[in-house]
Amino acid sequence: MDRVFVFLHVLGAVLFLGNIITTAFWKIRQDNSSNPQQLHHMAQSIMRADYIFTIPGIVLLVLFGVLTAQSYGYSFTELNWLTLSILLFAISGILWGVVLLPSQLQMQTLSKQGIQTGKLPDEYFQYSKRWNVWGTVNTVIPIIVLFLMVVKPG
Fold this sequence. Notes:
Elements: H1 2-30, H2 36-71, H3 81-117, H4 122-151
Helix pairs in contact: 1-2, 1-4, 2-3, 3-4
């Protein structure tokens, strides 16, 4: 059963990391566009990909990560690679909920306005830049978590 837990945990990591890295790639490719329709489609696609890949990846990561750690007897009560990973993953989730998700929703709303008026509002580009900066931070954090999970320092 332990191997099944590990497999499902790793599958969650692949879904989660694969989607956030791929989404960043496609978002940055679209940033040079000033076409409101194209940017609106991109903003909708980011949200859709979060629902299809990121959120299920998070569920698999957390659920089977906890089950795997418990089955191998890892401690959740002391500061170690596991608790640091959990803390970093939580910080990543908070950043997504407080900064990235609201930015994504604003980009979607503002790009829809741009379709109606024929020009993107200046605020769109502010939210897009915020998404790029914090999205980069929020991509690096899970990569650090991946490193900790594989190396298990200390």
